[in-house]
Structures are given as C-alpha cells and as structure tokens.
Amino acid sequence: QLFDQVVKGFPTWLKLDKKENPVQFKIQVWHAEHRIGFPWSEIRNISFNDKKFVIKPIDKKAPDFVFYAPRRKPDTIEVQQMKLQDFEQKTK
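Structure (tokenized):
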C-alpha cells in the first residue's frame, strides 16, 4: 500500500513492501531525497488514528516514528462562490 501526502510542496510517501517471503514486510517512508526503512521484524506496533500514523519500534529506547497525513478541509462558502464566478467568467 502507498500512503501519499504533500509536505511543504514536496511529496512524501509511506509504503509497505512485501519481500519474497510472504511473512516478511518492510515499511519505507521517504520525502524527496530522504528515505527511511523499517524492517518488519523491528516493528513492535503500527497504529493509525485519523491523521496520524505511528510506528513503534521493538527497542523501547528508540523514538516512535510519527507520520502525519493532513486532510484537506472543505472550501468555505466564500471560496466556493469565488470559484463559481471564475468558472462562469472562463466559460463566457
């Protein structure tokens, strides 16, 4: 699976890779040129709550990796009206 988001204008991906062995997985997170990998055997827990994806490693001294997936808020009425006016002007 691939979770996609844009952070400060650059795409960021969270990907779950399946290796040759059906029980081996690897999680990769990368942003532009930076890539972070998590072997499945080193992950204690994975949780997802609304906008936050958390990977907890087996080593309790290691920090948790938190991946935020912002949700797009619906346009306000004013913005919707401006878009409608712009669309009407373009179609004339």
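Confidence is low (pLDDT under 50) at residues 1-10. The first helix runs from residue 77 to 91.
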